[in-house]
Write a structure and sequence with these properties.
This protein is an alpha+beta fold. The chain has five helices and seven strands. The longest helix is centred in the first third of the chain and has 19 residues.
């Protein structure tokens, strides 16, 4: 899918919402396949997993096009956060993360954890996440475990 976007984008133009994965999984996987499989060369069999069925998913759209996604697993793990390349650094990731953190608070999680790709650690630190332990290599990419304590919703 080729998308033409007018940049810069304001956060008011980005719509993020919790979606029903069974109904909207094609939109989620459009973004995740673009980012993880095509750009980062992660095998598709590792990108899609059983947790997709039990997780809460957030989808970001811009002008009706899917441009970002992320998920919250039942145990409070944020993952599969992805933003389409043409719209990165425009606030989409922030909108997705804010929605996922609110979901975690609503689900009464006391904290959320994630495995940040090394290049994104600073982004997560600005959101209040703290590094835990040493960097590790997963699916061919360096990651860092991170944790954020939450206040009740």
């Amino acid at each position: 899918m080729v998308t033409t976007l007018s940049l810069p984008v304001t956060q008011t133009e980005i719509i993020t919402k919790v979606i029903d994965y069974t109904l909207d999984k094609a939109l989620v996987h459009t973004v995740r396949t673009e980012v993880f499989v095509h750009e980062q060369q992660i095998p598709v069999e590792l990108e899609i997993d059983i947790l997709d069925l039990t997780s809460q998913h957030v989808l970001a759209t811009y002008n009706g096009f899917p441009v970002g996604t992320g998920r919250l697993t039942p145990d409070g793990r944020i993952g599969r956060v992805a933003v389409s390349r043409p719209i990165r650094r425009q606030g989409v990731g922030l909108c997705i993360m804010e929605q996922l953190i609110r979901l975690a608070q609503q689900n009464h999680h006391r904290e959320v954890v994630l495995s940040a790709q090394y290049h994104a650690v600073e982004f997560y630190e600005k959101l209040g996440f703290e590094r835990e332990g040493d960097a590790f290599f997963e699916v061919g990419i360096w990651h860092v475990a991170m944790r954020k304590r939450l206040l009740p919703a």
